[in-house]
Amino acid sequence: MFISGFQNLNRAWLSWLIAAKGLDWFIKNSPGHVRDWKMFIWPSELSQKLQELRLEVNQITGIHPAIFSRTFASLLGTRRVSENFRFNIGGGWKIGYLAAASKAR
User: Fold this and answer.
1) d(CA 65, CA 29)
2) How many other C-beta atoms are found inside a 10 Å radius of the C-beta of residue 12?
3) What is the pTM of this model?
């Protein structure tokens, strides 16, 4: 069975505030492509595109920065994202999400 995974930022106001504007205003070394809110897509848009490609969405789950960590505290102090920056999986889709899809039956 073919299974593929996808990660994206949601085109919601909270992800715009945190991922697009927050990175732009606050983080010195954030990559430019992360801040392009026009590239963020709704989970429903991803599902539709995957169906057009004859893929079936198996699961979608939320992803968000691990804000209760030393790495996040360091980010606030240095305004730089370290290599150790991590995300938590689970919860809502308001910031970002992970999706798994497989070939449609």
Assistant:
1) 16
2) 18
3) 0.76
Interacting residues of 49 by C-beta distance below 8 A, sequence separation 6+: none
Alpha helices in 1-105 (DSSP H): 13-15, 23-26, 43-52, 70-78
Query: What does the block give as tokens for 80?
Result: 């730089």
- pLDDT (tens digit, 9 = 90+) per residue, 4-50? 787 888 888 888 888 778 777 777 777 766 677 788 899 999 999 99
96 Cβ neighbours under 8 A, 6+ residues apart = 7, 8, 9, 10, 15, 19, 62, 63, 64, 87
Give the pair of three-digit tokens for residue 53: 């490609």
| Cα first-last separation, the chain | 10
Tokens of 38: 């026009």
CA-to-CA distance for 7 and 43, rounded, in angstroms? 10
HSE on the CB side for 12, CA within 13 Å? 15
- Give the CB-side neighbour count of residue 52, counting CA atoms within 13 A: 6
